[in-house]
Amino acid sequence: MLRSPEKDAARTSLFPSLDYKTLHNALVELVDAVPLVQHGAHALGYTILHTLACLVPFLEHELMDTLPYLVASTMTLFPCSLHKDIIDVLCNHLLPFTFREDPKQNSDSYASMSTAAVLMMIFQYTDCSAYHCQVLECLMSLKKDIVKDLLCVIAHGTAKARCHAVELLFQYLPTLNPALLDRKGIGWLLDSLCTLTCLVLFPTFSPSSVSPSLMPQGSGHTGWKPQSCQRENCSSTSGNEAVKMCFEHSVAITSGEHPPPLYMCEACAEEVEQEHGSENLVDILLPMDKVSVTCEDPDCKATDKSAVATCFSIECAKRNGHRPIRYCAQCVVTYHNEEQGVNHMIHTTIPSPWSMDLETQSYMVEAVISLLREAEPLNEKHISEPLNGQEDEDSREMRVVEERQLLSRYGIWLLVGLCTPNENTSDESLGRLLSMLFQWFSYTACLPDDQAGNALERLKAEYIHGWLMEVAKSRFEVFVSCLLPHPVDYAKVGGHWESWPSYPVQIKEGFKRLLCLVPYDIITLEIWEYIMPYWMDAFRHEAIEAEFT
User: Fold this and answer.
1) Spatial separation of the C-alpha atoms in residues 218 and 207, rounded to whole Å
2) Which helix (H) or strand (E) holds 227?
3) How many CA atoms lie within 13 A of 172 on its CB side?
4) Is the bond preceding 261 in cis, omega lying within 30 degrees of 0?
5) I need a surface site. Which of 47, 287, 496, 514 has the fewest CB within 10 A?
6) Could you tell me which of 340, 322, 132, 354 has the C-alpha nearest to residue 242?
7) CB atoms within 10 A of CB 350
């Protein structure tokens, strides 16, 4: 009943007629007061979270659906010591009940529409990868279009949120990465971005002067720990990982002050089932140990065992110890057909963006552009000026530039792997992608001869060139329109177009970008003969000699 808005009246009629809405409103106002409390902020914040979780069964969905966003926003207000409690309340007491049982009904709900904002706040205000994985796996078990929300965060989120989002996207959809062995975690980049901001804004800042407890914790791929059994006097002698939710109120009352539902291990669930039956017991998922690249079905008989999908439905998860299971193409069809698995929550690889709805397509295009923009060099004065004579800080700043350039590889992989144009591709979308890719060549034109530089150079020669030649052949008009001195409006992306450049600056910077493409045989004779008359005309009538000196 909790997940069905149409049953709100029947559900709320089971409880005493009290003013739950006013209590909800009072708690919302208290949230903003927590930062003002000088002593006891942790206790106050914890009490608010606990009360909100207890209030869920008594609220109609009109208010219930707003709770995930409200609780996620407390990341910005509550002490960092409550981050674990915030994530647990979201994943154990709010998200499972604010999303509808029928996934088709989620598109119009407030909880579903605010998912991207929830992810953005969590990625921005905590660096713990375990929390990120816990929230994302919870959402993947409830929402089929979670990739859309991740793309939204990558496209429009902060630099820090973008780093976490793209890392998780490639972690849970490993088939997106054509170079799994060449991947490099970007958790260090998140720490570096924070430090670099301080170095730029406060020249006297020294990372060594900051307490280690106040520095970001990085973003390693450490899995999250499952909920432990909450039943008092748990009878489990070994592992007491919770595998079931119990909605039997008489059991919950005798197990301490835990918000509903009560989470319990297999042994305790069997005891409760013997006394009260199984109708109030619901199976739950355990964390994914890893994202396997091969099929995890023990009965798989496929020749090609490469995993292409992950099923988060409990019927399939039971084959993998209550954990989401990775399937090959043959097993996906075997367990998800007209006879079974119709409503399973299964996530496959991302399809071509040109087959997506317009909103998701827009997120994909902007996500690629945002990632490619990460390769933009920092202001030269910030790179060249010594910072208090400390070479270690200067080298750290230079390494941030290197890591940001490596982050742009994710944009290249998404672009070349998914965004090959077809008859459904609009000129505007393709033009924006091409223009930003050409600007990326300009950003990475002068790379040092090191690991990062060599990795990006390999992408240009071995991965991007063939894709660009295919695009030039199939969409020649769009391709060359992005290389003209005065491109169409939708192609004015990145670089000097981020400001309001004068005509001479447009000519100068545009021609520099064009020259950066020449060493990679991207400018063929046909393209050269088409665009050069336009450039010669621009040099003759618009260029100012002083601008080119």
Assistant:
1) 15
2) none
3) 31
4) yes
5) 47
6) 322
7) 20
List CB contacts of 313: < 8 A, sequence separation 6 or more.
Answer: 141, 341, 343, 344, 345, 346
Task: Find all residues with CB under 8 Å of 357, minimum gap 6, and list them.
Answer: none
Half-sphere exposure of 314 (CA within 13 A, CB side): 10
- What is the rounded distance in angstroms from the CA atom of residue 535 to the CA atom of residue 343? 57
Q: Return the exposure string of 493-516: e unless at least 16 CB atoms fall within 10 Å of the residue's CB, then b.
A: bbbbbeeebeebebbbbbbebbeb
Determine contact, residues 295/328, Cβ cutoff 8 Å.
yes
Residue 379 CB coordination number (10 Å): 10
In this structure, are residues 73 and 121 in contact, taking their beta carbons and an 8 Å threshold?
yes
CA distance linking residue 478 with residue 472, whole number of Å: 8
* Cα 203 to chain centroid, rounded: 32
Please state, in angstroms and as integers, the Cα–Cα distance from residue 274 to each residue in 261, 279, 322, 430, following that order: 19, 11, 21, 61
CA-based torsion, 128, 54, 38, 71: positive or negative: positive
Q: Are 443 and 375 in contact, with CB atoms under 8 Å apart?
A: yes
Contact 285, 141 (CB under 8 A): yes
Cα separation, 236 vs 477, in Å, equals 69
pTM score: 0.87
pLDDT in tens, 253-283: 777 778 888 899 888 888 888 888 888 899 9
Beta carbons of 32 and 65 less than 8 angstroms apart? no
3-state SS of 132-178 is HHHHHHHHHCCCCCHHHHHHHHHHHCCHHHHHHHHHHHHHHCHHHCC
User: pLDDT tens-digit profile of 403-456?
Assistant: 788 889 999 999 999 999 999 999 999 999 999 999 999 998 887 777 777 888
* Per-residue tokens: 248: 């039997």
Strands 281-283 and 244-246: antiparallel
Q: Which amino acid is at 123?
A: F
User: Which pair of structure tokens corresponds to residue 171?
Assistant: 């972690």
Spatial separation of the C-alpha atoms in residues 318 and 324, rounded to whole Å: 8
Strand, coil or helix: 443? helix
All residues at 6 or more sequence positions from 71 whose CB lies less than 8 Å from its CB, including other chains: 49, 52, 86, 89, 90, 94
pLDDT of residue 206: 42
421 phi and psi, to 5 degrees?
Answer: -70, 150
Three-state SS string over 36-64 comes to HCCCCHHHHHHHHHHHHHHHHHHCCHHHH
Q: Supply 532's token pair.
A: 């050069």
Beta bridge partners of 228: 241
d(CA 440, CA 513): 9
